[in-house]
Amino acid sequence: MPQHPASEREFTMRFTSTPRGARLARRLVSHRLNDWGHTYTTPVNETLTLIAAELTANAVRHGHVPGRDFHVQLTLAEGTFRIEVTDTRAEKQPPASHPATDSLSESGRGLLLVASLADDWGVSPRTAAPGKTVWAELHEQAKGHPLTHRVAPEPTHVDLLLATVSLLRDAPGSRPEDASHGGRRQ
Questions:
Q1: CA-CA distance, 126 to 129, in Å (whole number)?
Q2: Strand 80-87 relative to strand 132-139: parallel, antiparallel, unpaired?
Q3: Which of 121, 41, 109 is nearest to 81 (CA)?
Q4: 14 against 169, higher pLDDT
Q5: Cα–Cα distance between 84 and 72 in angstroms, integer?
Q6: pLDDT band at 60 (very low <50, low <70, confident <90, very high)
Q7: How far apart are CA 28 and CA 15, in angstroms?
Q8: Would you state the pLDDT for residue 99?
């Protein structure tokens, strides 16, 4: 077993390829980050937990092979967090570019979230067996806040749709208490 430098930390575990396994993986990543000094409410913990949730959910949904588990590895080395999720299904690869999603669809945005939150991400073939590893990296910033250098993304169709729904919901006559007065305020 190779010796790791003192500054490197590592968490590795296999999980059942089920929604319960994905949930457990997400929780253990968050707990491990807390143990490493990045408490639950810090941006590092919240960001990596969300990335872990998306990658493990994809491993269960798209990388599931009956009877096979998925593997999670979280490392911290030289100020960079790296999370890797390995499944055993090689023929289902994530798209190379941002996937196009239907603005009304309830799914299909996981990799968009990963791409917007991570400093880098990608897919590598599994070396010792069939499958793939989807990984994401997050650079630790000087004050432990990974999001300080980010620029807000351009609004998407989904963002505009959600903003419109919010405006419509708050419009006079759209609330249930306004309905009893014929949409007029008293």
A1: 6
A2: antiparallel
A3: 121
A4: 14
A5: 6
A6: very high
A7: 11
A8: 53
